[in-house]
Amino acid sequence: MKILLGITGGIAAYKSLELTRLFVKTGHQVQVVMTSGAKAFIQPLSFQALSGNPVRDSLFDCHQEAGMGHIELARWADQIVIAPASAETLAKLRMGRADDLLTTLCLATEKPIMVAPAMNRLMWSNKATQENVQILKQRGFEVLDPEEGKQACGEVGAGRMPEPQAIFEHTMNAQQQRQHLEQRLLDVRAFWQNRSILITAGPTIEDIDPVRFIGNRSSGKMGFALAEAAQKLGANVTLIAGPVQISSPPTIKRIDVRSADQMFHAVQQHYAGKDVFISAAAVADFKVAQKSVKKIKKQAQEEGLLLSLVKNVDIVAWVAEQENKPFVVGFAAETDHVLEYAKEKLKRKKLDAIIANEVGEGAKGFESNRNCVTLITKDGLQAFEEASKKQLGFQLLDAISSLGFNKTSVCN
C-alpha cells in the first residue's frame, strides 16, 4: 500500500517517526509531507531516513511543479494519514483550504483520508473543533478519537495523539475492510448485472383546483439514489418519478407523473417482467373526490372549505397481488412506532420486504440528503446506520440481493 503520511505542527510529531517505521517495516511505501509548523518540532531528515524518500514540504517545488508534482503525489497515494492533525489543519480541511501542500493534496484526491488529532484538551473540546470534526466525518474522513492523559502543556484530558501502534493497526484494519467491500461490490454488481428493476420516487400531487393541491414533503432523493445505484451496478432501471426537481442519468428510463392515478397507470404498464419493484414514492393516500376545473374563490368560502376525499389505489399492494409479480419492496415512513407499523404493513400488503424510516420533526427522511433506515422481511431485520442517501442506495441493493429471490428478467 502507498501511504501519504502528513505531519502537522505539534509536539506529537515525534511519534510519527515510529509510525513511519511501522509502515515501512511491513512493506508499505511511505511518502511524508510536512507542514511548516511540523518542521518547527522535528527535522525532515529523520523522516527521510526512515521512509527512504525525500520529504515533501512545499506546494511550489521547482523540481516537482514542472510536471504538476502535487497532483501526481495525490494520485500516487492509496491512503492519506495525517498524524498528528492539529486544530488548525482540521479547520482548513473542513473549509476546503489549499494554502499548503498537505491541504492541497487532500483536496486533489479521492482516496481515503484518516486523521489523528492532537492538541490541548480545551482546543479539542471547543465547539468549533467538534463541529469541524463532525463535518469531516460526514464528508467521509475517518477521525480517530484522541487519547486521554497528561499533555505536554501539563494539563490532563483528551487531546493526546493515539499511539503509533494503534494508528498503524487502525490503518491496516481499514484497508482490509475496504478490500472486503470492494470484493463485495464486485459480487453485488455481478448479481444486478442486466436485471430489470422498477422504482417509484417522490411525492404525488392531488389537485383541488387548477391552483391548489394536496401533497406531501417527499423530495424523491431516496428513490433517485436507489435508481442511480442500481444503474451503476448494471441493472436496467425504469424510474417513475413524481413532481421533483432532481436530474437523473440518461441511461435510466424515466417516466414523469403528477398524481397517484398517473403513477398507478405507469406502474401497471411497466411492472411486468421486472425482477424487482421498489416503491420508494410517497404516494398520496387520498385524492379530492371532485376537483374543480376553475379556481375556487376564497370569497365564496367565507366559513371554510370542506373537501370530500376518496382513497387512491395502494400501488405497492396491487403489484404484490399480481400472479406475475416481481420481488416487491415497499417503504414505510412513520413518525412513531416505526418498526411496529412497518412490520404490520409488510404482512398486510404481502410484501417481500419493506424499508422503514422515521420522519417528522427532527428526524431524517423527507427533504434530507441523509437517512437512517431498517430493512425488514418476514425472517428478520437489518438496521443501517445514518448515511447519505446515495450511500444507502448501494447498501440497500446489496442487502436486497441477499434476500434469496432468483427471478431472471425477461425484459431488456
Question: What is the element layout, followed by pairings?
Answer:
Elements: E1 2-7, H1 15-25, E2 29-34, H2 36-39, H3 44-51, H4 69-76, E3 79-85, H5 87-95, H6 101-107, E4 113-117, H7 121-125, H8 127-138, E5 142-143, E6 147-150, E7 156-160, H9 164-192, E8 196-201, E9 206-207, E10 213-214, H10 221-232, E11 236-241, E12 253-256, H11 260-270, E13 276-279, E14 286-288, E15 309-311, H12 315-321, E16 327-334, H13 338-348, E17 353-358, E18 370-371, E19 373-377, E20 380-383, E21 387-388, H14 389-401
Parallel strand pairs: 1-2, 1-3, 3-4, 4-5, 8-11, 8-13, 11-12, 13-16, 16-17
Antiparallel strand pairs: 6-7, 9-10, 14-15, 17-19, 18-21, 19-20
Helix pairs in contact: 1-3, 1-9, 4-6, 5-8, 10-14
Structural class: alpha/beta
> CA-to-CA gap between the ends?
41 Å
Q: Largest sheet, described in full?
A: 8 strands, mixed
Radius of gyration: 27 Å
Look at the structure and name the CATH superfamily of the largest domain.
CoaB-like
State the low-pLDDT regions, or none.
408-412
CATH architecture of the largest domain: 3-Layer(aba) Sandwich
Compute the number of structural domains. 2
Task: Enumerate the strands of the largest sheet in spatial order, edge to edge or round the barrel.
Answer: 12-11-8-13-16-17-19-20
* Spatial shape: elongated
What is the highest CATH level, the class of the largest domain? Alpha Beta
Q: Average pLDDT value?
A: 91
**CATH topological fold name of the largest domain:** Rossmann fold
